[in-house]
């Protein structure tokens, strides 16, 4: 099976029904994507397929074939931050940080369709992403901030 | 009980109780622990105190309290850097080895207060005694919001000693007086402008005695403490590059999971691995204590094999059904079961003769359920073992792995990895014991054991179940009497039994957050009743106070309402501690308090709990909407002595409030047939983004004791929410979770 991950084609030999989450983490060593629930309930495993946020724990490897898969590592890097990541740093959002890859990927999807989201837009888009540490107020502030940063450029 | 008796008999240590004998003399207590860094030093490297390591390539600060997201590494590093004069951006941080040198002295304060409630010399002596015992036992534990109190002086002193030693080395090399030297950003600077990097001086430090007892800098000169700082881990945690325990990779590692008896602690009776062994990638399936270990070449393949296993299980040693758990608490309100009665003011019985207001309150089992399921990598070789895991108890792990493998503790190396949350969950180490058992079947191979979410949640060692009964009276618009009895099993006994530590004496946590509250109700009594052991339980963010803060404030609210008084005004009338008064006044100002009903359909509630030495007051505001109750605003004031890291303070308090509100709203663990439910976040979800209120936070600095803030925001949130809901709807909530009785938007 051949997958396109963060712009690079990768050849893998896995069951068709292996969740993309575990292909990325255990077969390809891409660990920014996290396992939280394995059941579509927490959003820690969120990645993009062709720019759309999906739960990688609920996506079969075979269904990701032929798409552009983007993980947090493909969104931006410490040297070349995405606007959302810069805002996440400026607002010091993370506590344990474990949910934040998924939060950022979900927020990136939101901003791609809704460049200037309201609080209600944020509620609607982000409520599937659990944060056990309770960083929601900072996530909300960082999304608004990133939206401003993106509109300025 | 005198301080000496305590030394001889038992040390009750805040969230952790530890028994010990008088096996140490004054010599052991005065002698510093050996520096654990010395053993592993390379050539031209130096360990100045157990907290600062310098070699040619850089400066490493040792931060022995674990970071599960509460910012502990950052704050520990900042305290050292404040005196050492290094830029936080230029140094490395390492949790260090498990070692007695990293004993946690701040665990003593709360223990001493419980044993000797009256402030004064006896309490101080007790605290000193308990602290001495902790030092001798070398208890390296993260918990009880003790990281900052323990570290505040100790780590600054370590930084200062290291700095002065570096200056002495530079003075020797340059042939000048130490007094002429200054330090800045990792360099010693000579009067002529010569800059000697700390890293260059490392080779000179070998024979240098470490300069001791250096005076600490004045607060006016601080560069880090109290200032907004960028957390050391914030870039990694915003870019997916932070590696957690679950992300660790060792060469040649295999992926394992477990299927444990779903009724926690019960035995494995029979099993059939035939179907599971046929699945792709499965290597071995081995029986371990209470379950099966599955080893595969990929985590998902191990999970899938787990689902294909057939096993039959023994019964657990606790009641199988929930009704029997509650019945056990109900049955505990007897004279025989009294565990402590540390508050008994006035004459409660006489004051209640004429008829009392009564109520009963309940708090359920709760999972910690941090987002990262527990995991560990263990490799067992012929004469050594190595462990990589996120933990709050590295020294217990070292000892347990030694016991299971038959190795000496010295042969067991423990590496503490970053944690995706804990909330007390990683005070348990079953996952490490299980990984060790599996690894002993595959010597030389690193075995990475990852729990499924389901396995993690049903074997969570939940928060205690608890029940309280209140009797009280009012007169002339005032609260006159409060008699509060609290029944729960002992968290400390359950938790420490798994570490083979007996816990004699009363358990402070049965009444924590209730007996020591700063309200001078004329007739007031708080009694702790020890229920028989039920499901195995463990410390959950704020431990006993997590249930008792609700009980105490909810009871007080009912009495204030019966008296026809205002919830804030009456608390201010009763408050007996100036620090608590300031906290109440501040939170009232922040909210613009003008009674519990700011507008039609809106309600406000207030609560104050003193826990972990911190007075924390919260006001919650709700409104009724068509979809249900919505939490709009929360205001928080807390007395912390010193705001060490303002951003982290706000983040921790907001997180603690969201944690507590979410659990009060919709979380509980129940048992049926001995099996805990739910086993995933389809329930027990806590707050989500759409429900998260605005939360304003203020840290006060009136007190002299620097405190931690991870736990104190938790206890007052649930009762403040219950008060707000009562004000808005007239529904009195006496049992958590509240969504059994009201609907939330
Ligand atoms: S791990 Fe996929 S939604 Fe939780
Ligand atoms: S930061 Fe810990 S779960 Fe979100």
Automatic annotation (TrEMBL), chain A:
The keyword Cell wall biogenesis/degradation does not apply. It comes from the Bacteria. It holds the Pfam family Fer2. Residues 1-75 form the 2Fe-2S ferredoxin-type domain. InterPro entries: 2Fe-2S-bd, 2Fe-2S-bd_dom_sf, 2Fe-2S_ferredoxin-like_sf, 2Fe-2S_ferredoxin-type, 2Fe2S_fd_BS, Beta-grasp_dom_sf, Diverse_Oxidoreductases. Keywords: 2Fe-2S, Iron, Iron-sulfur, Metal-binding, Oxidoreductase. PANTHER family: BLR6218 PROTEIN, OXIDOREDUCTASE WITH IRON-SULFUR SUBUNIT. GO terms for molecular function: 2 iron, 2 sulfur cluster binding; metal ion binding; oxidoreductase activity. This is Isoquinoline 1-oxidoreductase, alpha subunit.
TrEMBL record, chain B:
Pfam families: MoCoBD_1, MoCoBD_2. GO terms for molecular function: oxidoreductase activity. InterPro entries: Ald_Oxase/Xan_DH_a/b, AldOxase/xan_DH_MoCoBD1, AldOxase/xan_DH_MoCoBD2, AldOxase/xan_DH_Mopterin-bd_sf, N-heterocyclic_Hydroxylase, OxRdtase_Mopterin-bd_su_IorB, TAT_signal. Residues 239-317 form the Aldehyde oxidase/xanthine dehydrogenase a/b hammerhead domain. Gene3D superfamilies: Aldehyde oxidase/xanthine dehydrogenase, a/b hammerhead (3.90.1170.50), Aldehyde oxidase/xanthine dehydrogenase, molybdopterin binding domain (3.30.365.10). PANTHER family: ALDEHYDE DEHYDROGENASE (PTHR47495), BLL3820 PROTEIN (PTHR47495:SF1). This is Isoquinoline 1-oxidoreductase, beta subunit. It comes from Roseivivax lentus. The lineage of its organism: Bacteria, Pseudomonadati, Pseudomonadota, Alphaproteobacteria, Rhodobacterales.
């Amino acid at each position: 099976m051949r997958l396109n991950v963060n712009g690079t084609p990768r050849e893998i030999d896995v069951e068709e029904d292996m969740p993309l989450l575990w292909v990325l983490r255990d077969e390809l060593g891409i660990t920014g994507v996290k396992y939280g629930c394995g059941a579509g309930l927490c959003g820690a495993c969120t990645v993009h397929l062709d720019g759309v946020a999906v739960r990688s724990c609920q996506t079969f490897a075979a269904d990701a074939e032929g798409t552009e898969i983007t993980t947090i590592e493909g969104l931006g890097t410490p040297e070349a931050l995405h606007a959302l990541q810069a805002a996440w740093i400026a607002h010091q959002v993370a506590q344990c940080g474990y949910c934040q890859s998924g939060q950022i990927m979900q927020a990136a999807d939101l901003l791609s369709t809704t460049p200037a989201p309201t609080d209600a837009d944020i509620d609607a888009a982000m409520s599937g992403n659990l944060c056990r540490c309770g960083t929601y107020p900072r996530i909300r502030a960082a999304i608004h901030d990133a939206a401003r940063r993106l509109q300025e450029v | 009980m005198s301080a000496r008796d305590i030394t001889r008999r038992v040390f009750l240590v805040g969230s952790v109780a530890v028994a010990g004998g008088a096996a140490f003399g004054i010599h052991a207590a005065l002698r510093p622990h050996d520096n654990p860094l010395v053993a592993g030093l390379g050539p031209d490297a130096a360990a100045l105190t157990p907290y600062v390591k310098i070699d040619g390539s850089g400066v490493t600060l040792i931060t022995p309290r674990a970071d599960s997201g509460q910012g502990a590494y950052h704050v520990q590093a900042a305290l050292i850097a404040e005196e050492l004069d290094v830029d936080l951006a230029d140094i490395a941080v390492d949790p260090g080895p498990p070692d007695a040198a990293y004993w946690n002295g701040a665990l003593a304060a709360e223990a001493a207060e419980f044993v000797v409630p009256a402030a004064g010399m006896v309490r101080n002596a007790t605290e000193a005694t308990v602290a001495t015992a902790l030092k001798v036992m070398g208890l390296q534990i993260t918990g009880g919001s003790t990281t900052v109190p323990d570290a505040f002086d100790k780590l600054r002193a370590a930084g200062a000693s290291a700095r002065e030693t570096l200056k002495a080395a530079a003075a020797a090399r340059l042939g000048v007086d130490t007094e002429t030297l200054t330090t800045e950003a990792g360099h010693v600077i000579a009067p002529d402008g010569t800059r000697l990097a700390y890293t260059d001086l490392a080779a000179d430090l070998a024979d240098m005695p470490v300069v001791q007892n250096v005076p600490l800098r004045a607060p006016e000169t601080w560069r880090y403490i109290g200032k907004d700082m960028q957390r050391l881990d914030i870039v990694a945690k915003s870019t997916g590059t932070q590696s957690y325990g679950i992300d660790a990779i060792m060469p040649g590692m295999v992926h394992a999971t477990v299927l444990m008896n779903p009724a926690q602690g019960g035995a494995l009776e029979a099993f059939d691995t035939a179907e599971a062994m046929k699945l792709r990638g499965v290597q071995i399936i081995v029986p371990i204590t209470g379950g099966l270990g599955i080893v595969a070449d990929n985590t998902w393949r191990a999970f899938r094999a787990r689902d294909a296993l057939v096993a039959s299980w023994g019964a657990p040693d606790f009641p199988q059904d929930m009704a029997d758990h509650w019945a056990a608490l109900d049955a505990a309100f007897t004279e025989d079961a009294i565990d402590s009665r540390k508050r008994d003011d006035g004459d409660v019985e006489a004051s209640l003769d004429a008829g009392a207001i009564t109520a009963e309150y309940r708090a359920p089992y709760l999972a910690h359920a941090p987002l990262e399921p527990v995991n560990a990598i263990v490799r067992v070789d012929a004469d050594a073992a190595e462990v990589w895991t996120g933990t709050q108890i590295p020294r217990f792990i070292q000892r347990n792995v030694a016991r299971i493998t038959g190795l000496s503790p010295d042969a067991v190396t423990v590496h503490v990895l970053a944690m995706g949350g804990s909330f007390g969950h990683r005070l348990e180490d079953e996952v490490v014991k299980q990984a060790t058992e599996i690894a002993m079947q595959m010597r030389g191979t690193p075995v990475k054991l990852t729990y499924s979410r389901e396995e993690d949640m049903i074997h969570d060692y939940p928060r205690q179940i608890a029940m309280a009964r209140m009797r009280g009276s009012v007169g002339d618009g005032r609260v006159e009497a409060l008699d509060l009895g609290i029944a729960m099993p002992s968290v400390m006994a359950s938790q420490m039994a798994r570490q083979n530590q007996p816990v004699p004496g009363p358990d402070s946590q049965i009444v924590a957050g209730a007996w020591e509250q700063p309200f001078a109700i004329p007739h007031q009594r708080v009694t702790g009743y020890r229920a028989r052991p039920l499901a195995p339980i463990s410390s959950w963010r704020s431990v006993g106070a997590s249930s008792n803060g609700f009980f105490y404030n909810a009871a007080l609210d009912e009495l204030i309402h019966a008296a026809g008084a205002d919830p804030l005004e009456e608390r201010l009338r009763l408050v007996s501690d100036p620090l608590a008064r300031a906290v109440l006044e501040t939170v009232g100002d922040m909210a613009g308090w003008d009674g519990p009903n700011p507008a039609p359909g809106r309600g406000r509630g207030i609560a104050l709990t003193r826990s972990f030495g911190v007075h924390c007051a919260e006001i919650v505001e709700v409104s009724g909407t068509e979809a249900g109750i919505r939490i709009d605003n929360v205001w928080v004031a807390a007395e912390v002595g010193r705001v060490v890291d303002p951003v982290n303070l706000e983040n921790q308090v907001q997180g603690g409030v969201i944690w507590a509100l979410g659990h009060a709203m919709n979380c509980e663990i129940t048992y049926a047939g001995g099996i805990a439910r739910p086993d995933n976040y389809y329930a027990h979800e806590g707050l989500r983004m759409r429900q998260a209120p605005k939360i304003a936070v203020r840290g006060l600095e009136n007190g002299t004791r620097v405190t931690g803030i991870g736990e104190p925001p938790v206890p007052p949130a649930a009762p403040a929410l219950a008060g707000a809901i009562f004000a808005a709807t007239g529904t009195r909530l006496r049992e958590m979770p509240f969504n059994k009785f009201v609907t939330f938007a």
